[in-house]
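Sequence in, structure out. Go.
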Amino acid sequence: MRPKRLNSSIIDRVVFDDDAQTLLISFKQSGRYLYSGVPRAIYDALGKAASAGTYFNQCIKGQFPCRPERRRHRPGG
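Output:
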């Protein structure tokens, strides 16, 4: 599960977990969100879309359960 950078004005990077069918999207302005029950085909299409933001709004937003991803704090940091 390596992060994949997208050429997008709203999405910085995405990470997909095949086993859990979860998609983590890091937005440039609003933070990180975890989407559950996402098929691999949706992730693949997001990476190939002419506009990742448009694809996200049409095919992911509101279609899958979503929750904010909280960053884990490192000890001493």
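Check: The chain has one domain: 4-68. The radius of gyration is 12 Å.
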